[in-house]
Amino acid sequence: MNRIVKKELPTQLWSAWGAFRLTRSTHAKPSLRPVSDHARSWLNGDSAAYFESSYVDFTQNPRSVSAPLRQLFEEIEREEVAHGATTSVQSTNVKELISQYQAHGHRRAKLDPLGYAQSVSDSSTVKELESATNMDARILDKTVHIPNNTYIGAKIGVLTLRELLLRLDGIYCGPIGTEFTHLTNPEEVDWIKRQLEVERHAFVDENRKKWILQRLAAPSTLESFLEKKYSSEKRFGLEGCEALIPCLDVIVERCSQSGVQTLVMGMPHRGRLNVLANTLEMPLKELLALFDAKLKIPEQLSGDVKYHLGFTNSKLVANTGKKIELVMLPNPSHLETVNSVVLGRTCAEQFHLGDTRGDKVASILIHGDAAFAGQGVVSETLQLSGVSGYSVGGTIHVVVNNQVGFTTNPDTYRSSAYCTDVARTINAPVFHVNADDAE
């Protein structure tokens, strides 16, 4: 793969080299002819790689090259400054740099709160991304023109290479890693790019931070209470991924804003009781009845053991003032079996409402990392998602990755870099989120 950013030889030196190539090609017998005071007898068409390598060494340590080369490079750089040259990094390389960040930045993203996950940044592309931020200061402080493949700095048109790299690293290598350049629809790619590069850095005000804290504290408090009160009961808690609750809150809110009236949900055991209580707003009295034999279990609950139960509730969304029906379907012990049931119910409700685009009835599926990667029903339902008669207009998939597939580490239960790689088969964008960064 081509290098992402390379320290280019200054324009004057390439001009001298090109002029020599022309001089050489017009003579029947090759001979060395100086084309300027800068040219030396060793400036010939076969030495471009040597000069480029020497210039890279010069920018890092001027004394690492021979005196004639050092004198030549210093003289050319003085001329560049005198003529007001804006950059020694070609625009084609800047465009390639941006494209590589957009396509591969997720491999350097800070996604693992524990730092246990094996790095997937072993490709040459990622190594070049890592070296890009270690360029010589004289290169980093050069001004570059922003190409048309990014919205970063689009309004001003120019940025220093240092500022461009900082922005790219913050967007594509931060707590969110995004896979979207594999999509075949250029309009979808451009839309996601705009959301990331223009809209993503919206300021999180104090009220929003307090709301996030409250929504994180609610599931944590519930888990702590159940652990102390019913320590012998199996409950498959949400510890470690409490961020799922504010995540679902935002999804429900956005669905309500988009006009969705019913949201059909399916999920595995882990975290189900917490989602029932904090997302579907199941009364705590009814939830606790599942743990205490003395209390009466509500009749509207469906399922067998408590972590398989389904529940339905009409929830008022505060930010929209609208009600949305949340339907959690019961789930059997086979974790992903509920997928096709959720999509089947969604499709049926859309049919009866005449909702051909999925604007009124939507679906969301929550998965564990190992089950999403390992169970065949996941791939089967994904492959049917675009088939006429089965499509529901798209499904939101949330994968809770606790990095333990029941009792198995990630490197021993899958071959792919990510547990979500199966989603790329249907051109679905994938957003990897560090759950410890709730903002």
Can you walk through the features of this model?
The chain has helices at 11-25, 48-60, 67-82, 91-104, 124-132, 137-140, 161-172, 186-199, 206-229, 244-257, 272-278, 284-289, 338-353, 369-374, 376-384, and strands spanning 143-145, 158-160, 176-179, 262-266, 311-317, 322-328, 361-368, 396-400, 430-433. The protein has 439 residues and is an alpha/beta fold. Strands 5-6-4-7-8 form a 5-stranded mixed β-sheet, with helices on both faces. Strands 1-2 form a two-stranded antiparallel sheet. A hairpin with a 4-residue loop joins β5 and β6 (322-328). The longest helix has 24 residues, at 206-229. The radius of gyration is 29 Å and the shape is elongated. It starts with 10 loop residues before the first helix and ends in a 6-residue tail after the last strand. The model is unreliable at 1-42, 84-88 and 118-122 (pLDDT under 50).
Count of DSSP H/I helices: 15
What percent of residues are in strands? Answer: 5-15%
- Report the order of strands and helices: HHHHHHEEHEHHHEHHEEHEHHEE
Structural class: alpha/beta
Strand ordering within the main sheet: 5-6-4-7-8
Q: How many beta-strand runs?
A: 9
How helical, in percent, are the residues?
A: 40-55%
Give the radius of gyration: 29 Å
Shape: elongated
Give the CA-CA distance, first to last residue. Answer: 36 Å
Which parts are unreliable, with pLDDT below 50 for 5 consecutive residues or more?
A: 1-42, 84-88, 118-122
Q: Characterize the largest beta sheet: strand count, sense, and whether it forms a barrel.
A: 5 strands, mixed
Quote the average pLDDT. Answer: 78
